[in-house]
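We now fix the convention by which a protein and its fold are recorded. Think of the row as the fold of the chain written in a discrete alphabet. Here is one such record, which you should read through line by line.
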Amino acid sequence: MKGNNFVIEMGLKPVPPEVYQELGKAEVDYTQLQMSAGKLTQLLVTPDHKRYWMAWEVADEAELRERLEGFPLHAYFDYTVHSVIDMVEASRAGMTDPALD
């Protein structure tokens, strides 16, 4: 069964260099774990690594929040959660725009 899809718009607040040095490797490892588990399905990052867009497929928003809070640098996230529909998959399954006759 497919899960629910969410897109996260995220900004990274300033991280003290010593905190980044302490937690940066764990942050990368946790990100890789979420990708290999098929939960984090896409990650887009600006070249300066200050803005992120993450696509997630999880059971529900509670699981999403739990996974987001698992990032070692979570305290430095500024993010907005959007529940979204994968329209490619939905179209294949026969979904159309309900506003159209």
